[in-house]
């Protein structure tokens, strides 16, 4: 194990400092604060398939200082939930994918666990979660991936019908699951990845996956984004895997933001969820829009920010994003946070309407 402090260790010490200074609002979100380095045994791993109850508390206003405000950049706040459960393995949610109606969900924790269930709505607002189940991510041998050294950090998720892809940050590998063969009890097979993927920093590696569907530019490509793997110019490294034009490209890095997740809209607009941390300001997040057609091997892509938020709003360590289109034609973005299994952080589920 490296003697250099990890991002989790560093931010864990930062959280302790915030607590000592009694900055309660900062401590609440902990600004991507994470616990000290884990022992080899994964403390909050899902050991076996289990049904669980998840409690949900509504977040009526995204901006507590101005409860009349609903518009934030190009997004309009719809609803939010604070999620809790007595189940020890619930938390650490780092990726989420919804069905076409925005009801059924598939999520992963960063300690090697699947979570599935259904979002319950009331009057168009999220009201709770039903039918929640958890199960361990299995490897090719049919054993939980957490039994392998460093394989527990499952950070990214994308889906193409029954095929589900999961990115493992610490080892920078991608597993492919065929849900037609057992759903969340299916076995994951590693896929071939470019050499550059394996060279990413072990704690700032694979953080977002997007599968490009038929009818879009780059159809059939798996796009893999690093959290903070940097090229020679300090931009964020990403990869096109498979598809018509495999290769490496970069996302221009600005304002010290790192990538947390990404989602592709039917319009061909790629939305990238980003976050940054500062001891002085805490956590900031933003969503940037990048045209899919601008992505090509060797390209450096960029795009405007559609949305920004900080600890003045109801955010935490936001790590997952997905989108669905309602029957009324509204594009709804769903964001989920990773609470790092910390008492000072929260698991949030937030929804916004994309209005521009």
Task: Write up this protein.
The protein has 356 residues and is mainly β. The protein is built from 3 helices and 24 strands. The strands form 5 sheets. Strands 2, 3, 4, 22, 23 and 24 form a 6-stranded antiparallel sheet that branches. Strand 3 and strand 4 form a beta hairpin. The radius of gyration is 19 Å and the shape is globular. Mean pLDDT is 89; it is low at 1-40.
Sum up the structure in keywords.
356 residues; mainly beta; six-stranded antiparallel β-sheet; five-stranded antiparallel β-sheet; 44% strand; globular; disordered N terminus
Bulk shape:
globular
Percent range of helical residues? under 10%
So how many helices?
3
Return the average pLDDT rounded to an integer: 89
Distance between the termini: 47 Å
Low-confidence stretches: 1-40
Instruction: Report strand %.
Output: 35-45%
Structural class: mainly beta
User: In total, how many beta strands?
Assistant: 24
Rg: 19 Å
Tell me the series of helices and strands, N- to C-terminal: HHEEEEEEEEEEEEHEEEEEEEEEEEE
Largest sheet: number of strands, sense, barrel closure:
6 strands, antiparallel
Give a brief description.
This protein has 356 residues and is mainly beta. It is 7% helix and 44% strand. Strands 2, 3, 4, 22, 23 and 24 form a six-stranded antiparallel β-sheet that branches.
Question: What is the strand and helix layout of this fold?
Answer:
Elements: H1 7-20, H2 24-29, E1 50-51, E2 55-58, E3 71-72, E4 75-84, E5 93-98, E6 104-109, E7 113-122, E8 125-136, E9 154-160, E10 163-168, E11 173-178, E12 188-190, H3 195-198, E13 206-211, E14 222-230, E15 236-241, E16 247-251, E17 258-264, E18 269-278, E19 282-291, E20 300-301, E21 305-309, E22 318-325, E23 331-337, E24 347-354
Parallel strand pairs: 16-20
Antiparallel strand pairs: 1-8, 2-4, 3-4, 4-24, 5-6, 6-7, 7-8, 9-10, 10-11, 11-12, 13-14, 14-15, 15-16, 17-18, 18-19, 19-21, 22-23, 23-24
